[in-house]
Amino acid sequence: MSDEIPQKYGFATRLSHGGRAGTKTHGFVNPPLHRGSTVLYQSMEQRRAYQKRRFDQALTYGLQGSATHHALEDVVADIEGGTRCQIFPTGLAAITGPLLAYLSTGNHVLMPDSVYGPVRSFCVRLARRMGSATTYYPPEATPDELAPLFRVETKVLYLESPGSHTFEVQDVPALAEAAHARGVAVLMDNTWGIHAFQPFTHGVDVAIQALTKYAVGHSDVLLGSATVRDDVHWRRVRDAALILGFYASPDDCWLALRGLRSMAVRLAHQEKAGLEVAAWLAARPEVRRVLHPALPGAPGHDLWQRDFTGACSLFGVVFRGSYTDADTHRFVDALQLFGIGASWGGFESLALPTTGFIHRVADLGGPAVRLHIGLEDTTDLIADLDQALARLAG
What CATH architecture does domain 263-389 belong to? Predict the structure, then answer.
């Protein structure tokens, strides 16, 4: 089997075999790690030929990537269902790089109010200084509600579905259609929906992944990706990445490739475990509601059921209004198997208070905590949550 894995194979098979030489090739199973900055040429004629291949996977200088980068890019593009992929050194860089590719002085971007906090900081502290304006819209907005917010100078509609703290599910196909009717590019953070949401069949132009999360899977690498619909968007994203000097370590790319081999198994386990824990919490008297789109009755469940084929293991818990932020902090401190950390998608479970720690002022009806379910035994996690809930009110 070659490194070009046909779509007829299942997701887990493609993850196991993509980006490597194949089963009938002599050598080690994993591809070699390629490090380097300077690339040598056999002649000036060869150098001129390579210089014309600026947007291809050509070895001209280390900044343009190596065979290690290209192997990871090919696998991620396959996961997202896109044509080409650009690897970035962090998930945040995979957002800011494409935004800079589409925005310039006098432009305007529509951003969901639930957006990842550092992206809001980019809009406020850098894009504004460059002369680009941002309007924050309710993530639940319909195309009709969004329509008055478009301007002649609007260049980007940004989506994050579900929101990574408040978990609103957006009507991506309808919003993308409204944007395209106005000539506006659609960029989406698809980290929560990795493999479970196919962005390009729903109208997205650039799909962004924080590969730090499920792709790497072991909480030891920062990495991001931007996958594009077609060559027009590829040229824009790739050019911006090269001009801005975004470069991911080949060692990190190699680790991400290794992490991807087991991602299908991890995702399946964590989806099941996440739903089991979410359902258990939803039945607790201390809990007002659980913000897990795949949970029947949860906000956004109908859209999730229509557009997604699965879920990940990140969700929110809203406690009853009689509890305070201090109570939820006591609850988090009492957890023994859940680390207090801002990331997710790794093998370990995490808990992080939402209320008071996000930019958006959202009335959820009570203080909230975000949970990520790892690879531990679910019965142990539930027992840990049970003992922590007993200390919720002091």
Answer: Alpha-Beta Complex (3.90)
